[in-house]
Amino acid sequence: MTMVVADVGAPAPIETVPARPQRRRRRGRITLWLAAAWLGFVAVSAIGANFLPYIKHSCSQYSNPKQCSTHIKGDLLKIEKPPAWAWFSNPEKQIGKGPERTGWFGTDRNGYDLFSRSMFGARNSLLIGALSITFGLVLGTILGMISGYYRGWADRIIEVVTNILLAFPALLLAIFIVTFSDKPNSTSSAGDTRSITPIIIALSILAVPPLTRLVRANTIMYAQREFVIAARSIGARNRRILVREILPNIVPTLLSFALTGLALLLVAEGALAALGLSVEAPLPTWGRMISSGQERLRSGIWWPSLMPAMVMFLTILAINLLGDILAERFNTREVIA
Amino acid sequence: MSSQLQVELRGREGPLLEVTDLHTHFKTARGLVRSVDGVSFTLDRGAALGIVGESGSGKTVLSRSIMGLLPKRDTVKSGSVVFEGQELIDMSLRQRQRIWGKEMSMIFQDPMTSLNPVMRVGKQIGEGLRMHLGMSKADARATALKLLQDVRIPSPDRRLDQYSFELSGGMRQRVMIALAMSCGPTLMFADEPTTALDVTVQAQILDLLDEQRRERNMSLILVTHDLGVVAGRTDEIAVMYGGKLVEKAPTAELFANMKMPYTEALLNSIPKLADPSHTRLNVIPGRPPDLVNPPKGCRFAPRCPYARERCQEEEPPLIPTAEDPGHVYACWYPVGSPEYHETRARRQAEAATLTEAEVAA
Q: What's chain B's Rg over C-alpha atoms?
């Protein structure tokens, strides 16, 4: 660079200009792969936790393993020893001092290996997050497109409702919904589904207003584009314009926003769990694991709370990074087009 | 069946399009904007009409209101638009959608934005074919290929699967023309089709439009701000100013014998190749009228060098010239009238004394 400065009068070196974005893109690629790898790992773990060498129960704190056989949903949990390569979930390995510091993540009070449990928890957390954001997306897209395209009274009604929902403290709203949709006469036989549904409903409703606004703004923008008028001028009907002309243009923005939304909903689930409003025991979610380990933080037993917190943190970070990269990519494409 | 045929036969007679006293006003916070304020004209089958005017003269709004493309909200429309014997003004959206594409279609100014960036070109052209003509996917694709060949896009089979942003501006406009022609419309609007293109491509696109119009026996309404664009390519030219038609004549007649000082000013503002370099460009002083509160008399009067008291007070009607009933104009003291010559002589004398004074100083 100094040589260039000395070279007075020479035309500016052109090659320095594109050098920068290239370096940025490479750095972006590494984070992209790291984030994708972690998310892939968590997703595979969540889906296949039963078949992967994650133990369902660790009995390291018992001298006699037969003592600790536990029933969950009527099934006798097997005491398994993971294969040697699955070192991360080996409960017999002593890692640090403390009664439950065995295995890489440690175990909780009941003797559950925290790594294994985090992966079983990923199943519920991600299911809740993914289903909520999907419902939010579907509803938000429909409402946003209707209000942005047709305007008029539909727009006014949707806008008022959206504004009311947005003005409400999000957590308070979620607490209301969970509390009211939780039927008191529920029995344990329908346990799992019953306890997951109100949370999904609550989080979906939280996701709808911002997505509606995003879609509405984008729809208004694209509805005024000339290609939409062009489509109209060859006789396309409204529904066709919405589905074939406008929707495909919104999808990239929507997807990158949906990832950020998913991350937010995972955090929101954690907040609900901290208030004791998430799924019921023994079903694990990250939020529930963190909050149930919380009380023992003071006594120096940090891993039951912080280990799942770390898994959750890494996952949300990865989702956000991926969302950022997607947003950036789609923006640049927009500039080129 | 027979009644349908009859309707069709009846439609074949007379002009293709008859616009009578068309008004399009927009409700805005500032007041009613009179974008199109009483325009009447007729267009024959297979004929080409050029609509010329500067920005804000209402030419785009005129073409869109004839087609019925404007949003219903905050728009006030009145008058009559008869197309093939059908009144379009009070037609429902559903009925109009049946006409759009099949009977009339439109090409837009900016081919960068008038094609959907996330749909392949072939599919986009095929949309209308499948919608209106009920073609199968394969047929639509074959027809789209044929259309791309017609608009002379190089290697059309490859373009079918490309996206609009992979094409050059000229090619995009060709795609747009193919799209607009796909269902064989009888009337095509071209709204400044070459404004966003560079000059060499402009001529190609205009020639293409002209050629396709003749081949398919379409009528064409070419909207532009450039008299040079319409000069050799339309049968008639209509000049718009402030939402009104101020002059309309067969193309040759208009250039040879223009009546409206505004038309003259438009023509004078085209730079001439013969002029020495650094010649000042001729401009029309002032700006287009405020269409919320248009001037009381002739709308061009505030900017017209030949305007007199009567021009400020009374609005001139559209009257035919003595020589050619097809040539109409709206001016009290048209080009060639004694008053026009008098003002012109006075202004020239003034200009001369001014330069003399400059020389003396």
A: 23
